[in-house]
Specification:
Number of helices: 16
Helix content: over 70%
Transmembrane segments: 21-43, 55-77, 84-103, 109-137, 149-170, 176-196, 223-242, 262-280, 382-399
Membrane topology: Multi-pass membrane protein
Number of domains: 2
Distance between the termini: 50 Å
Order of helices and strands: HHHHHHHHHHHHHHHH
Radius of gyration: 21 Å
Structural class: mainly alpha
Main location: membrane
Shape: globular
Oligomer: single chain
Largest sheet: none
CATH superfamily of the largest domain: MFS general substrate transporter like domains
CATH architecture of the largest domain: Up-down Bundle
CATH class of the largest domain: Mainly Alpha
Subcellular location: Cell membrane
Number of strands: 0
Keywords: Cell membrane, Membrane, Transmembrane, Transmembrane helix, Transport
């Protein structure tokens, strides 16, 4: 038994070997930054309880937040191609840290709409630049695993952040959140600039595409736009985890915030222990990326259909397991597919649009879900979300055929 456990542990550890020093530093600063992300989980609560805004006003500030995120993603990608990812990463994190210190002093509705839009524009310039940096600092054969490693850091950081944020609110009030969040941005980027030197993108970044003709402009790449549509739908389903599902836990089954939190922790734990082995296994076996994304879309769809069985609270655990496996099959592989589509010199633009599909899904997910629930109830929402998942599966089948045709 001990030998079996030792072998299993050794295999798990082996999944984390072979990364460059820069990738480990990127993972560390991602963890510090995400663990310090405390304003976002409590933003609507802060606006409602501390500043006494109406639900409608809170909604509009969140819309400004979402559009800032979309603009930032596009600018970050475009500028990464023009002046390099390194400068964008440093500017984005350092400046958003300073802006977080300042925004706590804005108390008016219009001031906060503008403030949140500006902060998210600057902050989300970081994401496409970071994706391009991973492609530069990781060995070609490790790129998907490197993306997975950074996703693990994000998940671990998000597990720690809200808990620490709650303690800070209790002891220092909401202003403490802005100081800690801003400081985490500045500290993480200082560590990055001290330990990691700027490097040009390697010529082999798009070696996988040498056999296929990819349009020079991202706007003419039909395959990529179908792929973005699939990303948008699956992200829309995923964000239900943070918008409609916690409400459903309480209203239908009477779960407390703590019990809802435990269900979300199950999602984080499964990802921490299983995502890297899944990615490593699929790469060793040479399983087609789009085939894995297809199965992930199917599992996400099932996770909502099972919620229509609403007589048993245990179905919530079953649903979380399905959505988590869907997430593990979709997100790391969709990241690497997006990068592999980009022609040399266009990586930033491709990753910008990829990131924007998530920002748009974030805006659409809560609004759509809550409107359906208000008009027709939870069951109707689960049916609509499950059916959107099936639409995503159909999109994956079509996409695979187009890619095979392009390669032939």
């Amino acid at each position: 038994m001990n030998l079996m456990l030792k072998t299993a542990f050794q295999r798990y550890i082996n999944n984390f070997r072979g990364f460059t020093r820069e990738i480990w530093i990127l993972t560390l600063i991602t963890f510090i930054n995400r663990a310090g992300t405390m304003v976002l989980p409590f933003l609507s609560k802060y606006l409602k309880e501390d500043l006494n805004f109406s639900y409608a006003q809170v909604g509009w500030i969140m819309v400004a937040f979402g559009f800032g995120s979309m603009l930032g993603s596009w600018l970050g990608g475009k500028l990464s191609d023009k002046i390099g990812f390194y400068k964008i990463m440093v500017f984005s994190l350092f400046t958003s840290g300073i802006l977080l210190f300042l925004v706590q002093y804005i108390r008016t509705f219009w001031g906060l709409c503008i403030g949140m839009f500006v902060i998210m524009t600057v902050a989300d310039m970081f994401r496409p630049a970071m994706f391009v940096s991973l492609a530069t600092y990781a060995k070609p054969e490790n790129r998907t695993r490197a993306l997975t490693l950074v996703r693990l850091a994000v998940n671990l950081g998000f597990t720690a952040g809200p808990a620490l944020g709650g303690l800070i609110i209790m002891n220092l009030g909401y202003s403490g959140l802005f100081w800690v969040d801003g400081s985490s941005c500045i500290v993480s980027i200082l560590i990055f600039t001290i330990l990691v030197k700027e490097r040009k993108r390697p010529a082999d970044l798009n070696a996988a595409n040498s056999e296929t003709e990819i349009p020079a402009s991202v706007f003419k790449d039909k395959i990529f736009w179908i792929f973005l549509f699939i990303c948008f739908i699956t992200a829309m389903l995923f964000f239900q985890l943070f918008t409609t599902l916690p409400l459903y836990h309480n209203e239908k089954f009477g779960l407390t915030e703590f019990q809802s939190g435990l269900l979300l922790s199950l999602n984080g734990l499964l990802i921490f222990f299983l995502e890297m082995p899944i990615v490593s296994f699929s790469q060793r076996k040479g399983i087609d990326t789009l085939k894995i994304i297809l199965w992930g879309s199917f599992l996400m769809s099932v996770s909502f259909y099972v919620l229509m069985i609403n007589m048993w609270a245990g179905i919530l655990i079953v649903s979380i397991i399905f959505i988590t496996f869907g997430e593990m099959f979709i997100f790391p592989f969709s990241n690497s597919f997006a990068l592999s589509r980009a022609p040399k010199g266009h990586e930033g633009r491709y990753m910008a649009l990829f990131t924007m599909s998530f920002s748009l899904a974030h805006i659409a997910s809560s609004k759509t879900g809550l409107e359906i629930i208000a008009a027709f109830g939870y069951q109707a929402n689960w049916f609509v979300m499950g059916t959107l998942g099936i639409l995503s599966v159909a999109g994956c089948i079509w996409l695979r055929k187009l890619v095979q045709k392009e390669q032939n």
